[in-house]
Amino acid sequence: MQHLARILRDLGSPSVLxxxxxxxxxxxxxxxxxxxxxxxxxxFEKEDERALLGGACNVAANLVSLGAKAAVLxxxxxxxxxxxxxALLDEVGIDSSWTVEDPTRPTTRKTRYVSRTQQVLRxxxxxxxxxVGDTRTALLxxxxxxxxxxxxxxxxxxxxxxxxxxVVEAAIEAAHSRGGIxxxxxxxxxxxxxxxxxxxxxxxxxxxxxxxxxxxxxSDLHRVAQRLKELTGVRAATIxxxxxxxxxxxxxxxxxTIPTEAKAVFDVTGAGDTVVAALTLARAxxxxxxxxxxxxxxxxxxxxxxxxxxxVSRREVLTILGQQPxxxxxxxxxxxxxxxxxxxxxxxxxxxxxxFDLLHPGHTEYLARARSYAxxxxxxxxxxESIRRLEKGPERPINTLRDRMDVLAALQAVDFIVPFxxxxxxxxxxxxxxxxxxxxxxxxxxxVVGREWxxxxxxxxxxxxxxxxCSTTAIVDRIRAAVR
Length: 484
Hints:
Blueprint: H1 2-10, E1 15-20, E2 22-35, E3 42-55, H2 56-65, E4 69-73, E5 75-76, H3 80-91, E6 100-101, E7 108-115, E8 118-125, H4 133-143, E9 152-156, H5 165-177, E10 181-185, E11 199-200, H6 204-211, H7 218-232, E12 237-240, E13 246-249, E14 255-258, H8 271-284, H9 289-303, H10 314-320, H11 332-344, E15 349-354, H12 361-371, E16 376-382, H13 384-389, H14 401-409, E17 416-420, H15 426-432, E18 436-440, H16 451-456, E19 460-464, H17 472-483
Parallel strand pairs: 1-4, 1-9, 2-7, 5-6, 9-10, 10-11, 15-16, 15-18, 16-17, 18-19
Antiparallel strand pairs: 2-3, 7-8, 12-13, 13-14
Helix pairs in contact: 2-8, 4-5, 8-9, 10-11
């Protein structure tokens, strides 16, 4: 672990061009509790909607989060989906200027309808036919730019028609003109179009389809690896095996399987993107194949513990490797890292939230009780602006966020504090997915924010009795009465 952490800390920040299928992932969250009287279908009651980077865009997001510089080269339509996709790319620092616009085809969008973290329907809007005419010419012209400004090329193939044989060949030529590497996350059954790449990362099913060899026992992996080498010319073959880890075979035939790092699997969406991004980053920085795969495996172990596509940060992987120290006061990314580390170690995490303005015995008793349900307690703390929006009054909070965090950090029962600016802690709860969600009994009839998410992920919600007569508002009222 220390060896891998040292490698990760010392990695540079290479520039990587991600070529492939640009996708917007759209999640419609709600409830599907009844059947329609009109037809034997579920009635979906929409509650929330969010958009995430998908396909090659998610690969690029992982690269940036891990410390690389990334640009995407692909095709988008002239539509609202393209504008939303470009905005998301800009938000995370991905260069979208290399993309090609084609008004004849829509930007690929996958819409997933999710009830209690279970997908009930997916709607795909896309065109899969190969690129033609001016669109294809524009793509090839970008790859023909010399000197080529990237250290590596990552081909992210989702089978939407962008990565045909000529585009792959142009990408390989461009990367090699700079002395860079080409890594491909493949799709389809014809792997001869990838001939000349330096590394490819099919999963078990993809490798079986491409080679015609069914993997039942370990010797089948060697047969598949040999066939992949013959088809593509790669010196080392790699096959991702899901919960069984990653298999690789070197040029001289040495082979082994790196076991998975995940302790809990909620969703495998995007795990392959994380593997290929981490692998490309490490190899572009000159890290050996086995160490690169181990780093990629650790990163993927974080992603499968979450729902939907996520970009894993270098800090999170360092935390998983046990090499990232944490103080009590965290930002959201650091809180996600802590939660990932605790899940990996098999420890329980509790979460509660509040304003905690004037700390009183009711608070300390409540926090001690919340801490008793788990190995660590994260407190989500409303920012000053968030408190003002909660209609606490123009004079609240009395103590600033900094002061409130410092006071909470002095309590033995509180392990970590994370400020949040939203009106509710729902997004923070989704990000860290605690094992136990704690609230006061006064929330029994109000509805506990985050209950469905936590329970759907196997967690529990606990309502704690409150100490009578203890509240910040009551303290403020007594002070005002005394002054009057």
